[in-house]
Write a structure and sequence with these properties.
Elements lengths: L11 E2 L9 E2 L7 E2 L2 E2 H5 L1 E4 H6 L20 H18 L3 E5 H4 L6 H22 L2 E6 L18 H20 L4 E4 L5 E2 L7 H22 L4 E4 L9 E2 L4 H10 L6 E6 H6 L4 H10 L3 E5 L18 H13 L8 E3 L10 H28 L1 H9 L6 H6 L4 H11 L10 H9 L3
Parallel strand pairs: 1-2, 5-6, 5-14, 6-7, 7-8, 8-10, 10-12, 12-13, 13-14
Antiparallel strand pairs: 3-4, 9-11
Helix pairs in contact: 3-5, 5-6, 6-7, 10-11, 11-12
Length: about 425
């Protein structure tokens, strides 16, 4: 034991009336909601990068955190792994997620970096066996190092493309070995700064071929998990090719990969793209692409991705409503792509940030489940579109324009608008929150 968390006991459910801040008030993992345990609905996962690799910097200042594992040696990486699994055990989190660069030091060569990753994976495997914690997904960090400054798959240098391919292979191998349920491609710099030096068509073709190679390799090694792409707008490049759900769907259709890849949708990225989280989730579900979620929030007074732990129950409830309506998670889950505020220095802060977020998600999901069971939203939606259920209306979708026009004149149609009842629905939703 590292004793980093100063003997903080495992967090237990004590109910809404408890005054113990080191206890769950709303998250009882064994509570049955819609016929399933709450833990199995939410499928929580700790994010290795923000919880253990982030140093507290922001666009205007550097490191504020001091952690005993900060460094670039294997000894540091092994201590970090020990502390990480201590947190997983304290929280009772069923899953975790990682980037390769979060868990191992950069080597003097690619081969050394790969060996470092494999060695840490051996430690993960042993600790996963001991604790029962599972891997929700792995991913390769292809955005932090200077080699990625012009992208990875979309880079103008073919050597960087090759290095990216090798990086993904190594990380997919580890994810597969550890029983990961998904593999994520997070294109942090797959975009451009200026069109003056960018060939959009070439870069899109490179990105499409790269993703196809990833899918091919998945099948080659027998990886049964889901390949996920995470929509990522604006940050850090001026225009990201994976801007939002709609953009990625068009990309997948272009390269014939829409049946092979799903999406990991993040709240903060949805906001940066000018959408609500529930919009992106609903769109992904309607396209058959909803895979997993990064549950965080942005500061609405900031124009960048602040990655804060969720604390807004109404927002979370509307998000989980779309997840539940789509049938819930299969291989996906709720990953906390969330980080402490840079003034929150203490180990206790890291524990309590997760405790509060897990309670918020539990309250939100239970509210969403209650709304779904009540059925008022779906009933109102069905009533609004009821006219389209008639044989005449359905047939109209297959009729030519001139025939429809003739029917309008023959029937002397004069349709009158009907209320959308938005305020009524908003009022009804608030009863559950």
């Amino acid at each position: 034991m590292s004793n980093f968390f100063k003997d903080i006991a495992p967090i237990r459910y004590e109910g809404a009336e408890t005054d113990n801040e080191f206890a769950f008030r709303h998250y009882d993992p064994d509570e049955i909601v819609l016929g399933k345990r709450l833990e199995d609905h939410l499928r929580f996962a700790v994010a290795y990068w923000h919880s253990f690799a982030w140093e507290g910097g922001d666009p205007f200042g550097g490191q504020t955190f001091e952690r005993p594992w900060f460094g670039n040696t294997m000894a540091d990486a092994k201590l970090k792994a020990e502390v990480a699994f201590e947190l997983f055990s304290i929280l009772g989190q069923p899953f975790f997620c990682f980037h390769d660069a979060d868990v191992r030091p950069e080597g003097a060569s690619f081969a050394e970096s790969r060996r470092n990753l494999d060695e840490i994976a051996d430690i993960f495997a042993a600790r996963m066996e001991e604790t029962g914690t599972r891997l929700l997904w792995g991913t390769a960090n292809m955005f932090s190092h200077r080699r990625w400054m012009a992208g990875a798959a979309t880079n103008p240098d073919p050597d960087v493309f090759a290095y990216a391919a090798a990086s993904v292979k190594a990380c997919m191998d580890v994810t597969h070995r550890l029983g990961g349920e998904n593999y994520v491609l997070w294109g942090g710099r797959e975009g451009y700064e200026t069109l003056l030096n960018t060939d959009l068509g070439r870069e899109a073709e490179q990105a499409g071929r790269f993703l196809a190679k990833v899918v091919e390799y998945k099948h080659k090694i027998g990886f049964k998990g889901t390949i996920l792409i995470e929509p990522k707008p604006q940050e850090p490049t001026k225009h990201q090719y994976d801007y939002d759900v709609g953009t990625i769907y068009g990309f997948l259709k272009r390269f014939g990969l829409e049946n092979e890849v799903k999406l990991n949708v993040e709240q903060g990225h949805a906001i940066l793209a000018g959408h609500s989280f529930e919009h992106e989730l609903a769109l992904a579900a309607s396209l058959g692409l909803l895979g997993s979620i990064d549950m965080n929030r942005n500061d609405y007074q900031s124009g960048w991705d602040t990655d804060q732990f969720p604390n807004n129950v109404p927002e979370v409830a509307l998000a989980y409503y779309e997840v539940l309506k789509a049938g819930g998670f299969t291989t996906g889950g709720t990953n906390y792509d969330s980080k402490l505020r840079r003034q929150s220095l203490d180990p206790e802060d890291l524990v309590l940030a997760h405790v509060g977020a897990m309670d918020v998600c539990a309250r939100g999901l239970k509210a969403a489940a209650a709304m779904l069971e009540d059925g008022f939203l779906e009933k109102a939606r069905s009533e609004r579109y009821a006219g389209w259920e008639t044989p005449q209306a359905r047939a109209m979708l297959d009729q030519p324009l001139d025939e429809i026009a003739a029917q309008v004149e023959a029937g002397n149609l004069d349709p009158q608008p009907r209320s959308g009842r938005q305020e009524r629905l908003e009022n009804r939703v608030n009863r559950f929150l």
